[in-house]
Amino acid sequence: MENIIKAAVQRGASDLHIKAGDVFRARVDGKLVPLTKQRLTPEQTKAIALKLIPLQEDRKRIDEIRDYDCSWGSPGIGRFRVNILRQRSSFMIVMRAIPFEVPTFEKLHAPPVLEEIAERERGMVLVTGLPGSGKSSTMAAIINHINQKMNKHIVTLENPIEFLHRDLNSSVTQREIGPDTESFRTGLRAALRQDPDVVLIDEILDVHTVDTAMKTVETGHLLISSLPTPDVTTTVGRIVAMFPPEEQEIARVRLADTLQAVVSQRLIPRADGKGRCCAFEIMVCTPAIRDLIRDRSRVGEIRDYLDEDRGQTGMQTFDQHLVELVESGTVAAETATAAASNPADFEQKLSTSRRKAPVGKKQEVASR
What we know:
The strands form two sheets. This protein has a seven-stranded mixed β-sheet, with helices on both faces. Strands 3-2-1-6-5-4 form a six-stranded antiparallel β-sheet, covered by helices on one side. By secondary structure, it is α/β, with parallel strands linked by helices. Helix 8 (207-218) links the parallel strand 10 (198-201) and strand 11 (222-227). Mean pLDDT is 92; it is low at 359-368. The relative contact order is 0.09. The chain starts with a helix and ends with a helix. It is globular. Helix 7 (184-191) runs parallel beside helix 8 (207-218) and helix 13 (318-327) crosses helix 15 (343-356). It has helices at residues 2-10, 42-52, 56-60, 105-108, 113-118, 135-149, 184-191, 207-218, 232-241, 248-258, 287-294, 302-309, 318-327, 333-339, 343-356, 359-367, and strands at 13-19, 25-28, 31-34, 67-74, 78-87, 90-98, 123-128, 153-158, 171-176, 198-201, 222-227, 259-269, 276-284.
């Protein structure tokens, strides 16, 4: 098993799938590819699950487990976020590879405005995107930037802990749901008594967590979390919709007051076939944006505002960033069009940009 996992990591796999009745599979550059020819038996898959479960008491109740999260690591191979589940009464395991090295904004090619967002004193910063879009890496880069540049106490609540942060200029306290604290809600409430400057929750899952998150911000802290939403506008709607109908207007006002920024992202295949790059949509909560969030009838105007505001506060839409990625030769035009929020509008933006580009720049992009 470890040799197969090591080979997958060496091929750049982001995820491994281990399932009874199937071969080992790995996700490489976004595609799920087979690694072996021999199919696993239910007994073999169960044995692998037992090896990955870290706690003795959990291993004893292996036959009762239906859904289980943990982390696993091995020297010379890597660290992984592990989900163990049942399907057709047999075990399946999905492992997400976690790099040992904590990512930086530079390595993620993140827009410069993320540094400014990370250095805010208070507010809620949401990193959003569909599963597998790299949200954990971006949140780790935000924590890493604070840890390197500022003198803060950072408390993280994770399920499970992914990137391991060393104490640099800041002190980083990492707590795992289960071994270290009962739940996100319990850990978040306790965090307020632990003298934090920055609190990270790896995902907002329910109304109780988002309500406590807003209270954390209202008491003067910076809170970082994620949501599985595809873009900025959907994120605002999803947060408000978590609350009961009779509380949604108040929730909208609270969100407008506490939200600091939303960073949405999508992973796009590179034109050279060497992996994927990240396209970002970024909203910074200016007074004008807060007014749009408060007014239910105007939330749909947010994307237009991001489009018009670019260059002043660092805000941008996905389609604007995709135009840049195409112009630089990083992403093929056809790939970017398929990933765009509004393909017709994107093609018009790309055409306009190409007409405006100086001759020298056009030749440079063409040569790439």
